[in-house]
Amino acid sequence: MGMEGIGARVARKEDKRFLTGKGRYTDDMVVPGMKFAAFVRSPHAHAKINGIDIEAARAMPGVIDVLEGRQLQADGIGNLICGWMIHSKDGTPMKMGAWRPLAIDIVRYVGDAVAIVVADSAGEARDAAEAVVVDYEELPAVTSAVAALQPGAPQIHPEAPGNLIFDWQIGDPAATDAAIAQAAHVTEIEILNNRLSPNPMEPRATLGIYDAAEDHFTCYTTSQNPHVARLVMSAFYNVAPENKLRVIAPDVGGGFGSKIYIYPEEIVCLWASKKTGVPVKWTSDRTEAFLTDAHGRDHVSKVKMAFDKDHRIIGLKVDTIANLGAYMSLFSSAVPTYLYATLLSGQYDIPAIHANVRTVYTTTVPVDAYRGAGRPEATYLLERTMEVAARELGLSPAELRRKNFIRSFPHQTPVIMNYDAGDYDASLNAALAAADWDGFAARRAEAESRGMKRGIGMSCYIEACGIAPSQAVGSLGAGVGLWESAEVRVNAVGTIEVLTGSHSHGQGHETTFAQLIADRLGVPIASVNIVHGDTDKVQMGMGTYGSRSGAVGMSAIVKALDKVEMKAKKIAAHLMEADESDIVIENGDVKVAGTDKSLPWFQVALAAYTAHNLPSGMEPGLKETAFYDPSNFTFPAGCYIAEVEIDPETGKTEIVQFVAADDFGNIINPLIVEGQVHGGLAQGIGQALLEEVRYDEQNGQLLTASYMDYAMPRADDLPSFTLSHQNTPCPGNPLGIKGCGEAGAIGSPPALINAITDAIGINHLHMPATPLKVWSALQDGQMRQAAE
Amino acid sequence: MTKVTLTVNGRAMSGECDDRTLLVHFIREKLGLTGTHVGCDTTQCGACVVHLDGRSVKSCSILAVQAAGSTVTTIEGIAGQGELHPVQAAFNTHHGLQCGFCTPGMVMTAVDMIARHGGDLDEHTVRHELDGNICRCTGYHNIVKAVLAANEEMQGAARQAAE
Ligand code: FES
Ligand code: FES
Question: Is residue A208 located within the same domain as residue A82?
Fold first, then answer.
């Protein structure tokens, strides 16, 4: 692997700029003449707009202009869209309501944007935004999806009667019902997946710059996929044709899904820059982030899992209601369908599955993908159900899982997915050993003697990464292909630039992608630069989400490298008068195998550019492009074990150990992979113990709009983690890698809730398991015992 | 508008600002030192931590005018040009950062923590002391490791210097 090649634990190249304060985030950008925007936002969850009076605001100090939705509409700027078409089971297309970048007649969630103020300073823009008088006529709010489906619930969009967006299904209902009817045992459970706010530490920001002389727009933005942003803003929102719009996502301070989507602010700031003639910058504050960044999860599900007399699962029936908020965000329809229900087979051989999913409008901020996106919901549902089933059947959790593991590959599930490789026993065994599961009884007894309640729980997750074969997702309704692009440019001195359509916002691509080059060409990673995040530099790309940058983005680099190598070998063979098939590239030299003939890499590169002595007919230069379209998803899987201790006096849960055993296939940089797992675990543990978005059900106000009200995991809420890796290489891509970005967030919540319910001796507890909830459950249990 | 003069990273600097301008915005916008970040509006996240007269403070929690005349060190000023402070180096070695947004605040907090706790830092204390700094990327595991490693190294260096 070499010191810096694939598999090496290399410290990150990009760190230095971040560590010394030289990172360049969107809010750090300053351009001449730049002014500042503030948005006028709805204080109501649902209201009719009877009029907007901007005159007082316009007269405020420093104000350049105040612009409204009607003007935006008059200028032909389009509505925001959801890019993945889902059809209901009756064949009708999903019912998408209009989402205007600036609301005109109705606002539908607290924070819905109504107007933009542009002023000399951010403070003046805010002052003036408060002086805009909007005449609202309040309408009733509804924040829960279940309530929004009730007859008589407030109607949110005229396009979607009864607030139902689609009623979709997957799998075989008849076969599943038959399995349940003949089951020896059926476990039934209701699952709530709590609503979360992604909370990357960098708030969203955008800087729109219009150049009147060139009739050209530049958009700096906090995006995970600047090319998709450009495509959507051009093709659907009518901001400008693609050649007149440059989108730059510079350093981005975390995304976790929330920065995939195109939000109203980018569009409005670009348009406002043209209207006002000045560059317009907007930076969200944290309250605005809670109010307007797409949230995640928010599912309610009913589950029936059927077992035969040998404890084999014979059927799984799931009925889910998913809250999509007030508008359909860019990928919102795909999350509770193809990213969720297709994973309901888990690691288990289940002959019959049926899932029905209804998605619903509510007067809350849009809900879309958040780290894991659908797969955490599927895993939580399955692994909670498996735990309860094991208790009901009197089996150990490991035993029930072992009886049902898939052991031969490829494996076709009844819900589309075709698992290509895996070894679920390996991860389970590794986790059991690392956690000393067998010694738990003694640890529990010892805790008991101190008056503490100790519990242990596991979760065996599978997920699908590397999204995805373009033709397949196209047939399922995706509006785009999900390939990736790469360009490998070898400079005349042999140094290398790799242009990628992937985007790094913490994942470490500048290091891992360079390691791939180092591995192949033997050049030091210091000689390799990774270029990304700018539509003027990289032609096209699909961006980073769904743990796709390794499996898809790096595969594209491999393809481009293959071409570069082939050409370099041809040149070297010509220069050394050898046969092309005898040329090997090793440790930075291009050699004739079995001889002492050799050229340093840079000389081959130089020869390509001097072009004095190239094989006849060969074009000068050494630069190749490739597009890679994956042939399948990849299927990372693993086993997580949580051990907790609960203080019955306070209900507070302490995580005494957390073990993660993951199979990500081949790994490029273990240091970075471990970091990804740690971060995912923290978010999953946050979901299980701390985090929950809450709206007031009566008036639709967001109650958790700051870090005082929304509990983010902090250093003293978390333990250090025990990790290990198993490896069944992915057969579907050239590097054998599966992806590691989301596993931690997917696998950890059920492990924790299984541990907590084990500790307190109950079967059900909804996330987040706050001290109050745990304490109340303990009190209920004591009362029940006393009554019996 | 009020003129505020202070010593930042060893140099006298001044700028005009509104009375309501927070120190963090003054540092970022008037002085152009954008390493100090804003991650929240309730003094909870610690992305904005700087050293003010030798103590670590959240620069979003005081006004620029309140800081007039004081000495401020920001992330740009804790090591010489092109060099890394041992805490910065440890964050690199132990992968204590991902997106880098919380990182300047984390490093400034860690430097101060090590100065105050000297030889007796352990995991529990580090986690407790980091309570005011939120990181969404790393799960803190490697940040804790990096702080402990930097402390080790700095104690070692101090011992050597004393010998
Ligand atoms: S910005 Fe100062 S604590 Fe968050
Ligand atoms: S490294 Fe991203 S928030 Fe800490």
Answer: yes
Is residue A216 assigned to a domain? yes
Distance CA A162, CA A151 (A): 7
Q: Cβ–Cβ of A720/B144 closer than 8 Å?
A: yes
- The b-or-e profile of A716-750 (16+ CB within 10 A means b, else e) is ebbbbbebbbbbbbbebbbbbbbbbbbbbbbbbbb
- Strands ordered across the beta sheet of B71-73: B11-17, B2-8, B71-73, B49-52, B55-58
Residue with tokens 């990327």: B137
Q: Is the domain of A238 the same as that of A111?
A: yes
CATH assignment of the domain containing B26:
3.10.20.30
Range of the domain at A394: 299-467+632-787
Shortest CA distance to A80 belongs to which of A254, A338, A266? Answer: A266
Ligand nearest to the CA of A708: 1
- Same domain? For A335 and A223 the reply is no
Q: Is B16's Cβ below 8 Å from some Cβ in A?
A: no
A123 interface with B at CB cutoff 8 Å: yes
Are the beta carbons of A73 and A100 closer than 8 angstroms? Answer: yes
Q: How far is the CA of A186 from the centre of ligand 1 (A)?
A: 50
Report the alpha-carbon angle B73-B17-B36, nearest 5.
Answer: 30
Residue A453 pLDDT exceeds 90: yes
pLDDT in tens, A397-417: 999 999 999 999 999 999 999
Residue in B with minimal Cα distance to A286 = B40
Q: Do A700 and A142 touch, CB atoms closer than 8 A? A: yes
**Per residue in A477-523, pLDDT tens?**
888 888 888 999 999 999 999 998 888 888 888 899 999 999 999 99
| Range of the structural domain that residue B150 is part of | 86-162
| CATH number where B105 lies | 1.10.150.120
Check which CATH number belongs to the domain holding A271 and give it: 3.90.1170.50
Is residue A235 one of the residues assigned to a domain?
Answer: yes
Q: How many domains would you assign to chain A?
A: 3
- pTM (2 d.p.): 0.96
